[in-house]
Amino acid sequence: MGDMKILLVEDEREIAQFIINGLRAEHFAVDWAETGAKGLMWGKVNAYDLAIIDINLGHGESGIDICAEIRAKGRTYPIIMLSVINDAPTKIAALNTGADDYLTKPFFVAELVARMRALLRREKTLTGPKLVIADLEMDTLAHTVTRAGREIKLNRKEFTLLEYLMRNAGTTLTRGMILEHVWDINADPFTNTVDVHVRFLRAKIDEGHRQKLIKTVHGYGYKIGE
Ligand code: CA
What we know:
The chain is α/β, with parallel strands linked by helices. Helices cover 39% and strands 22% of the residues. It has 2 domains: 4-126, Response regulator (Rossmann fold, 3-Layer(aba) Sandwich); 130-224, Winged helix-like DNA-binding domain superfamily/Winged helix DNA-binding domain (Arc Repressor Mutant, subunit A). The chain has helices spanning 13-25, 36-45, 63-72, 88-96, 109-121, 156-167, 175-182, 193-205, and strands spanning 4-9, 28-33, 50-54, 79-83, 101-104, 130-133, 136-139, 144-147, 150-151, 173-174, 214-217, 221-224. The strands form 3 sheets. Strands 2-1-3-4-5 form a 5-stranded parallel beta sheet, sandwiched between helices. A 4-stranded antiparallel beta sheet has the order 6-7-8-9, covered by helices on one side. Strands 10-12-11 form a 3-stranded antiparallel beta sheet. Strand 11 (214-217) and strand 12 form a beta hairpin. The longest helix has 13 residues, at 13-25. Bound molecules: calcium ion.
């Protein structure tokens, strides 16, 4: 599971270093925020695969608030909370604000990594009104799409096509599936309608970006993913 980008929000340097060393040994890339304010800023704007957030960040900052604000921004990556407090109300509060797991200090890095892997393996199908893949975001209620914070104008077909791809991120969709879903069941499967529209969509979504999100799976169709 290389190339995974992890956000670590932890005010204590020794604990942070212990976690960073353990995660880097497992080939995770780690951004360490030593304050809640920095963690919140990075957590909202950067595309992470997972975040690890300490509950007691000092200076009156609470990891639970950081988690809640990241979720309120529509970020759906898994979040693991860390705390020395091992009581049910704190755990429930953390989970209720959108954390996926909770780990009590002290812990072995191996346990943290095992829990991270379990969360990262979790079904990647996206549901709900906000879809996020890397720095590409779609708000299906507001009908807006942004890449790296910049709005992208899509026509109705392109929007429907992108939504279908994003809701099935990581899964290859055949031309037939796309044709049925985005056009209609009677569309002629022998035309190159799908390829033409994917080309237009790709020009708007991927052009000028180093990371290409829309992928051609030769002989099958297309998929979107990191
Ligand atoms: Ca702390």
